[in-house]
Amino acid sequence: MINYIIRRLLGFIPVLFGITLFTFVLVRAIPGGPFESEKGLPPQVEANRMAQYHLDWPMSKQFISYLFGDDIVAIVTGDEAARDGTSRGLIRGDFGLSTKYRNQTVTDIIKVALPTSAQLGIMSLLLALFIGVPMGTLAALKQNSWIDYTSTFAAVIFMSIPNIVLAPVLIWILALKLNWLPVAGWGAKPPFFLGIFPPPSSLNKEYFQHAVMPVFALGTGSAAVIARLTRASLLQVIREDYIRTARAKGLTERVVIVIHALKNSLIPVITILGPLFAALVTGTFIVEQFFGINGLGKHFVQSVGNRDYTLLMGVTLLYSLFLVGSNLLVDIAYGWLDPRIRFD
Amino acid sequence: MAVTELTLEQSDAAILERKERSLFQESLSRLMKNKVAVVSAVFILLLTFVAFLAAFVPIFLDPLEQDLLATNSIPEWMLFLLPDNAENYVKFSNVYPLGSDHLGRDMLSRTMHGARISLSVAIVASAISLLIGTVYGAISGYIGGWVDNIMMRIVDFLYGFPFLIVVILLQAFLKARARQESEGIWLTLININNSMGGLFFLFIAISLINWIGMARIARGSVLSYKKKEFVEAAHALGASEMRILFKHLLPNIIGPLIVAETLAIPGYIFTEAFLSFIGLGVDPPTPSWGIMISEAVQGIRSYPNQVLIPALLLSLTTLAFNFMGDGLRDAFDPRMKE
Amino acid sequence: MFKKRNLLLAVLLLAAFALVACQPEVVTETITEQVEVTRVVTETVVEEGAAVEVTRIVTEEVVVEVPAEEPMMEMPVTLNWNFGTEPPTADPSLSTDTTSVDLVGNMFVGLTKFDPVSGEVSPYLATDWSVSEDGTVYTFNLRDDIAWVNYNPVTGETTQVTDADGNPRFVNAHDVVYGVKRTVDPNTASDYAYVLYIIKNAEAINGGSEEVTLDDLGVVAVDDYTVEFTLENPAGFFPAIAGMWVANPMPQWAIEENDSKWTEAGLIVTNGPYVMESWIHGGELNLVKNPLWVNADDVQIERIEGVMITEASTSFAMYENNELDTTGVPTTEIDRVKADPVLSADFYSAPVPCTYYYGFTNNKPPFDDVRVRTAFSEAIDRQSLIDNVTKGGQTPATSFAPPGIFGAPAPGTVGIGYDPDAAVAALESYLDEKGLTREDMTAMDITLMHNTSEGHALIAAAIQQMWKDVLGIDVRVENQEWAVYLQTIKNTTPLEEMPHIWRLGWCADYPDENNWIHEVFNANAGANRLRREPSQFDELTAQAGQEQDPAVRAELYAEAERILAVDEAAYAPIYHYTTVNVTKPWLTRNFPPLGANDFYNWTIDMDAKLEAQGN
After folding, report:
1. CA-to-CA distance for C198 and C241, rounded, in angstroms?
2. How many whole angstroms separate alpha carbon C10 and alpha carbon C607?
3. What's this model's pTM, rounded to 2 decimal places?
4. End-to-end CA distance of chain C
5. Contact C22/C14 with Cβ under 8 angstroms?
6. Topology of the domain comprising A114-295
7. What is the CATH number of the domain that holds B141?
8. Chain C: touching chains (3 or more CB pairs < 8 Å)
9. Which of A168, A196, B17, C170 has its CA 20 to 30 A from that of A86?
10. pLDDT (tens digit, 9 = 90+) per residue, B94-134?
11. A neighbour chains, 3+ CB pairs within 8 Å
């Protein structure tokens, strides 16, 4: 088990390196740079700013600086002037200074934005699981009954409403018409509990009021996916021989379903939880945009427009890290759900 | 948006890998009994027909023609869709059957042309990713050994990218290049893209990402079939490797892949809408449902009708593809029998 | 084998968080508390067979309900403001955008400021100033009572900074000199350093010249409260430049101590009417009134709660829900707002000194011919565009600088406006001479380009239609994402890749024609995106910048405007911007044409606001 995890973790290194390199090259290949401005910067000012971010260096040198830091650049290239640079390199946890937000490092930005997105994401995921799994189970057990049809239909409907429409409609109805909820914002502020969770003092009515609409908008779509998946998977599993055996043994239907069938049918659900977790936790642009939530989602989109090379690299790597990490957790969870899977 | 995509692909990978072969005839009759799936299929066919009609039969207004004096107008019957105070600011005009948008363009013909975009995204992007994914996955699984290992590592690597960032980056890259390069293959690509209102690059961006999931499913299926008797038999009869792969194996694995792709289509349609919202979709003034929604959504409380029409169709279309995918899956999986 | 227990633990942890997160709202308006109560009890006891009443004092613990919060303190006068986006910086040297400038303008003082109503340059940190005979040396006398202050987020107190000797620190001439030098220093990499190029040696120093150093910069502190600027050449507009944020006094010790973090809440040292209370990047930024500010008594709004909502429709919904006191109106909502009995009273559109224009690529055929440019400019029905598309009550533009800018011609007096007949005549004269038809023109694939944006697309689509209707020429509209667009329209782009027509806007940095027609269009001074050949126009604007007599300057600028817009028709001005805004009745605000939104001049009727919010 430990060996398996270590092997997987080592496997991350080339993947993450490849992603870093590819993104690094691609963002610089897009025409337009971070310092273009409407006023038309005088060449010397532009040159000053390029120099500040090492953008006047050849790309290989920039990449070394980004990955390992300026002191390594000095050693590798013999360019002693490079030591004056501020980059300490990715390997030392330095994502660099944002080109757009001039007084903030990428780490600063992530520290504020990630926890908010994560809280929203985790709540949405929980909502999705708490609605999705029971709904799917019920539908499968009562296959082709009205329960099945209603829940399948509801699931598919929720999957079919784009958030671009759902979010403003929710605001219109729940906040403006009925006056039940605030329009926008998020109830918890830094410093966060353990760096991620809302500080206990802010877990009040207001916090949940702010969360209702975005969690609903994000969670229902995922709930629908999970419900359909659970249904389909459970339908397959309850026709398996071992379930018949379990029934034949005289176990109660409840034991058969909960202990034997459901556990096995959750494998596909667990499979999607990996990428779903990574996607939800690192923020979703539309929901955060409409509900004015200071999350990470906007940086995925805006950093491309701003050509904020460092921030773009930062959020990309962060997402990749979450994705490979949660996929590893998923694979580990397989072993628990299905003893036939071994980690050799 | 992206969420749905990932999940669908993943889920289907997980489920479909467990599938076995079923008799086509039997499946088809099962499918025909599934009324929802049939209705969905009919809806999609109808939509395709409308899209063709809009594109080739000029009986409707020009979707690009604007009339600045008749912006945001509605036919009178539509007033009930608008907020209470609407009669004080809305313009009435019966020239446009479904009203006009903020530039005085006909909503009906824009919606119909929009169907063309959404459907072509659905069909072309899924066809491309199905093609690449199946061939890649099948080869990888069939040859096996170190080739398989390398090919799958590449897939793992690509899979680690944030889907959205890659699409955004690719779209930004392709669109930016579109103006700057004017030679060789780029020029050809750019001309194709321009003549399609920016759609071509959208296809490339979406399908370049989505073949990965297909490749995984295809590989899994090939692995489970390649030791079966009929493959051994073909070997014994001296069939070439390529013939075995494409003539014997592919027909057996393609069913589940098509189902998976059908279920991935709503994700593509959503992606188009999302990219339009952030300004990286098709080029305006090309009408697409995504662009129509994102153009109108700011004014949703003034003119909800302008959001409602494209959004309703977009939802119905994804709904139809979902139900059709479900129907296909149920029909082609013998274990789903009553 | 894999250990189930660990996973179980993880699941439990997750579930624990779920419980916390999903707990039904424990909304307690009151909480229970144990308190000691002393009371007098009278009881009847049976004592020796007889009932006797005894009175005694007991002390016992009881559980009582008390309000969860202290009775509401008097609510500070609060403005709920939407910054619209995270301010890219709060550093005066680095600010370039309106959001950052809003922040800087309320926290820092400049030598001069623009009167929020008239837009004229008036004293601020400087009480008065004088200029030498030849117009190249400006001397500013400073007031000595503006304190450097720092807000402590823990105690909530604003205190005056003291120097090494423990004396209270006031803003002085050395701080001004430091600020100016810091902006010009190439290591600061200030985008706006070029605004100060008028100061002697600034351009060379900023360009990293080996020959001159920061010590050679034309700014010195004559004494503690007098600062002297030496300019490259006479510039009548210099007092306006001296008031700009990049020339603000800055706290050297704080900047050197905290480096790029000096603008964070708690660390930042400021000298303006407001201090920074908190700044959660990307989320919210709160300002509170600086009690040590010289005119603190005149500042009515005590606290500004700023959010950063990008989505205009969300911001507008927050306004309708009384979560914001003032906000912009999305174009698509203007019709409804104007028709709504409540919102229409809140609606206000104020001019902003910005101009929207289409540039022509002056050396790209067929736009290398002035008649073609004239025809395209005259074919734009600016009023119809404003009435039907932009809807914000903008002013049609025929020349470049908007009203309120020194030297700007009154709208409509200079330049060419909508004149379809003249447009057709000009075009036909060109076509006849070249032996071309309109179809030939269309075949030239004339391209209009704008950066990707809903608003620009609308305008482009409308104007495209006007050209088609009036001139009978089809123009292709293209858009590019901002960063790419800016690169495309540079004057170094090969001509084939350059669009024939492109859109840009310009907003005032300081209210003088020099900032407009000279800095933008002068082929030698600006970016020359129009790709003009230098002409009499370029001489005129350069000459006007050095002229001392205001009347003569104004005349020179008027002539330059005319040449560019009429004789050369080098660009097509479209309209002068307005800000389209709704403001709650309890907020009295102004719309400063230049510089920051001056929160310190605004007032709020807090009672009315609280009543509306239902508190």
Report:
1. 9
2. 51
3. 0.84
4. 61
5. no
6. MetI-like fold (1.10.3720)
7. 1.10.3720.10
8. A, B
9. A196
10. 888 888 888 888 888 888 888 888 888 888 888 888 899 88
11. B, C
